[in-house]
Amino acid sequence: MELIEGLFVYPWTSLRDNNANSYLIDAAVPTLIDVGHLRHVNQLLQSMNQDGIARDKIALIVSTHLHPDHHEGVAAFSDKETLVTFHEEEARHLKEFGYQLYQATGLPIPDVEPQFYLEEGTLRLGTDEFDVYHTPGHSPGSVCLYWKAKKVLFSGDVLFFGGVGRTDFYEGDGTLLKQSITRLSQLDVEYLLPGHGRVVEGKANIRENFRWIQEEMFPLI
What we know:
By secondary structure, the protein is α/β, with parallel strands linked by helices. The chain has one domain: Metallo-beta-lactamase, Chain A (4-Layer Sandwich), CATH 3.60.15.10. It has helices at 41-50, 68-71, 88-104, 174-184, 203-217; strands at 2-4, 7-10, 22-25, 31-33, 60-62, 83-87, 116-118, 121-125, 128-134, 143-147, 152-156, 159-160, 163-164, 191-194, 200-201. The strands form three sheets. A seven-stranded mixed β-sheet has the order 1-2-3-4-5-6-7. The protein is globular.
């Protein structure tokens, strides 16, 4: 569904199988953030098609990190001219440790190389600009994107509504996660789009979510 002009939200709501939320930026460079598991890509594409967005329209896929529930589905685009990008530290992590998560769940690692790596700073997609934040903690190469013009924060698995990303996976780090969340809490956000769970709308609600996480969850991390 279209949340605001040029931004489509495809939340994962099933309680029977894990998968990430996906988000589509329908702008000068149509960009899909976190394609999810390969087995659920057809369902995502059907939902997009209902919104009038064809698979071939997608020019870029951003993986906020490379855990299977966010990244495995890029394999469905390996025969297309769709670009893929993620942080270089996440590529290192996948080769050294992260592949074990795929092995443990019996899933193949996508044989898709990024055309470029995301770096901290500004990502320009046509006339649209996004601030890229390197936000380790849940995974060492996790990134969040901030669409300042629309006050939208794509937070991946760094934080959710009433929760934060796990730190018990390979190279997870609670101290780094708290630092990442603290950085993000300084942004002017009207729409918080997490990797799982519900979208949080409204500046006051988002500030309250940050406050609750910092006061109630930080001592537990």
